[in-house]
Amino acid sequence: MSGFFEIIKQYYVKGAVISALVTEGENEGAKALWTKAEGYIFTEGSSVFWRGVAASFDQIEGVSLLEVGSSKVFFEVINGVPNLIICGGGHISLPLADFGKKLDFRVTVIEDRKEMAIPLRFPTADSILAMDFTEALTEVRDDVNNYYVIVTRDPYYDIICLEQILRCPHAYIGMIGNKNRVAKVRKGLTEAGFSRKAIAGIYSPVGLKIGAETPAEISIAILAEIIKVKNAKVGGMGYDEKMLALLTEPADSAKPKCLATIVNRLGSMPRQISTKMLVLADGRCIGTIGGGMAEEEIRKTALQVMSQGLPCCVGVDITGKHIKEGEAYTGGVIEVYLEPCL
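Now predict its structure.
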């Protein structure tokens, strides 16, 4: 089991990997990992079974629960942890880094003025690079899940940053600025030899148009645009860093836990298929599958699964059977796979 999560952790920095989990039938509980370039990179259970599943991977673009022979297999494209790289350490960067971390991004702040690039100003940032923008950007790992926000103090530095970022893998590039500033930067990038298509891919002025004025409001507008771009990407919900760290902790210090994954849903439910929650031995939860009655029922069942050591798939129905007539409710059915992780 730990080998499965270790490989996912490695591929979070390499690119997308597709996971497969048998939720019912032959080989129930077995897992596999597959990439388009390499094919299988991990399998559990019958090799004959997985040879029969191989053709199904080509159909997967996001998440799917498919019948493969007499089994049900849950597939998920895992894109990795999103990285928010903020170029500039001014007043907008402060709430941007804070809110970005709350939204489960790995946050890096780059600022060449060393007195501004300090943990006291950015306590939630995972990394602070106090160096020239050109040098700092070479320190940023290439990743298709990089979301860049350019909020430097001058168009000169905007161009320096963009000349480097445009040549690197990225999911999003946004730049703050009024029309004159944006025009100046676009002109500079054109003169540097960048194509119209590459320049047009920059979100600028950055952020959704919500009438934002204060630094906090502007950062929310920026992150709202990033979320829109991120969630439009094909893929499942994946794992957050804290969850993945617990799932890959050394065996000699590991404690029992149970991973709950939504593999199917009907009706109006708060969380998407592939959303995960890790239940710890003391009853605490990392992540959420929607809260309320459904989550509490799953938490209790997860503790039982943990003690028994056997995986299971359970359905939770909150379609309003116990709601009084005339009352409003959000309801539906979720199917959750629970697997003990020791």
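Confidence is low (pLDDT under 50) at residues 322-329.
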